[in-house]
Amino acid sequence: MKKIAFILCCVFVAGLSAQNTQTSPDGNVKVAFDLSDSGKPFYKVWYKNKEVIKQSFMGLELKSTTNLIADFKLIKEEKTSFDETWQPVWGEESHIRNHYNELLVSLHQKTSDRVMNIRFRVYDDGVGFRYEFPLQKNLTYFTVVEEWTEFAMTGDHTAWWLAGDYDTQEYDYMESRLSRIRPLSNVAIGHNASQTPFSPTGVQTSLMMKTDDGLYINLHEAALVDYSCMHLNLNDSNFTFQSHLTPDATGDKAHLQAPCHTPWRTVMVSDDARKILASRLILNLNEPCAYDDTSWIKPVKYIGVWWEMITGKATWAYTDELPAVDLDKVDYTKLKTNGKHAANNENVRKYIDFAAKHGFDQVLVEGWNTGWEDWFGHMKDYVFDFVTPYPDFDIKALNEYAHSKGVKLMMHHETSSSVRNYERHMENAYKLMNKYGYNAVKSGYVGNILPRGEHHYGQWTVNHYLHAVKEAAKHKIMVNAHEAVRPTGLCRTYPNLIGNESARGTEFESFGGNKPFHTTVLPFTRLQGGPMDYTPGIFETQIWNVNPDNGSYVRSTLAKQLALYLTMYSPLQMAADLPENYNKFLDAFQFIKDVPVDWQKSIYLEAEPGRYITVARKDKHSNNWYIGCTANENGHTSKLKLDFLDKNKKYEATIYADAKNAHYKNNPKAYTISKRKVDANTVLSLVAKEGGGYAISIKEVK
Known about the structure:
By secondary structure, the protein is α+β, with helices and mostly antiparallel strands. Helix content is 15%, strand content 34%. It is globular and about 75 Å long.
């Protein structure tokens, strides 16, 4: 059910020079727009009368024509208010309120006789704005050389940031003052399969900051469609960020046709870090769901043939006999298997049996299709066909076996970033999925993009990612895209986009490790635009116990791995470890079995970026609650009031906590499990040890 209130008030103005403002519904956020003496647009933002964004100029540089930067005159102003409550297909809550006050300014540029509109939406937790270009004779097809949107900070804030790059977000997060971004840039840029850093002061969104006087500020974008991904480039002499778009193969940033508009640029602000995590501003700035029927879109809890390859215990490739592969000529039945190929019939059946026994929805299988022998590092065009299985993977029999046990297999489409090859085969690949009953696909974009010269975050590739989601919807298929552009809330419009990676996930724990504070930063940054397929649940955190040749370890206690199912929200959650490792800790594994993946309500109880996060969530389909807390390398002590529980109900809490001697490095698998009766008056005192956490299931006692 929707409840909508819409109030419209229009004012038409010619030659207005006074500052134009709009405030949030609660009056705490204010945005002001004006023009300089030379007709350059600029804006400012305040929160509770504190300046958040100083005077920041706006505009676009165009190719071979007059720039949309100066010589503007304000010709019209419109102010509106909007209030609705909408229901997401899946999410952190079952109902989301979309309540804002809007300011739309229409600008006329005398030198070009063009009109450009700038639309501001002001929420209680921030501001979104975008450029709009109406249909007009003097602006039809145009090319953006750069977008000159500024975000002028009020000081040398503390920031949690990723190095700016056109092709990857799989870098370690850095925590520093803005003034330290330049000297730390070399440390911030680690190795990746595809990477193109662009500036020593370049950073990516979502960017999280904290001011010395306690304001939390987040910069991002929403509804990235038919445009290139925005990064930020810092002028560290005055702490002003400048938008920096990802170029295409020709060096241009975006090719547009009016009428059109840019994505939203977003500024979230609060004096309470919990409100940043609870914000739905990014989702609200996206369009409503594009599908009439969403009954086929279901949250998923899955396991998979994956971690054994990530750790190096097994391989994706079937054979070691091929230095190069021509898919149309190789007969794999005549080749000797390497003995380490994980996607074989016997192994996959083992995972299916485990999933069926413990109530998991699906089993991901990677390395099932031919071509993995030379898939990476060659920028190979025809790298996979996405339909031909290896000889030891009986696709028909395995799917029938899975379905007989109430389990589905999850498809894997690694494209090796040969995007045009994927589009060439996409229809047949989706038809194969329909034939065998697959309803979800994990796609991947490892390596440099083909066509050559395009980037992972450019307009051309951004359009491809959405094309894949729309085409999948025609086949009632859900998409979980890895290495794609970071999310900007499009899952509201296209809810079959059920997951993304777009940051360092658990796999990097096998490649040297993530920082212990990593998962206390991601919900403030990467997850602002949509859920992440982080793949938590690693119980055997010392990787050498899985593969003796791998000396890496997970920077987390076992209890923290349970907490991630709450703090790293996703409707798509993987139990990423091997079945044999879960069998060693079945008492702790019970929490992963119990925890839902779709929620009625979420309450952030404690939060500080880079330090700790504690969240309570209510199951969408029962009165049960679940709590998770993750901490950095210093640990965290909580006193939790359970006053969010129903006053007239009794509950039993099962607490999965770090043992007193637990430590993410020295004693990661030390945990305790205890039970106690609780109600709305209960206060729990709990400790997350160094790099640790805790998880609680609170079930109604009837």
